[in-house]
Amino acid sequence: MNRHVRILLAGVMVVAPLAATVYLIWWAGAALHGLASGLIGAVSPDAQKLLFPGAGVLVVLIGIYLVGLLTHWWVFRRALGLLERALSRLPVVKSIYESIRDVLKLFGGDAEQMGQVVRLRLPGTDIKLLGIRTSTSPRGAKGEKLVSVYLPMSYMFGGQTVYVPPEAVVPVDLTVEEALKIATTADAGQAPDAPAPQRPEEPAGEG
Known about the structure:
207 residues, alpha+beta, SH3 type barrels, 5-stranded antiparallel beta sheet, 5 strands, 50% helix
């Protein structure tokens, strides 16, 4: 019976990640297609009928790329700045907008200012925590020379944000995505380290 259970678990290990990945891709594609289809239908119902499966995703990606091109135009950047200032005056909208914006900056921002993977050593111990430096001048530091470090938790969403002196952290040559993967999976499933060399046997003492 144990053999059949192990075979079943082996199948789950193969099927579950593939199924979840395919479902998430399908769900995201369907959502983007529906969004683009609705926008095109509002402008021209006849054009909406010409959309083929997946065309909505292509339309959204092209639109996002064009917006990215517009960010190089100072007039667009000024208009975007005015829009951000307007959103910052709306209490609930401000929190939502700034939270999403800052998370995206965490993945694509300047590594010297935000999104730098670091190791934080706990004082008085040899324990080192893997974290992400999110700011070199955090708002909650109240003028102190501190940096903010986000410490993600394993196998769950969330984590803790701590303020520590700059010298308490050491940069790590990892991307944010790699660090979050290590944290969320507790570094499980990684290639095992090479076996440690065996200690030579101590010579027997003389009688």
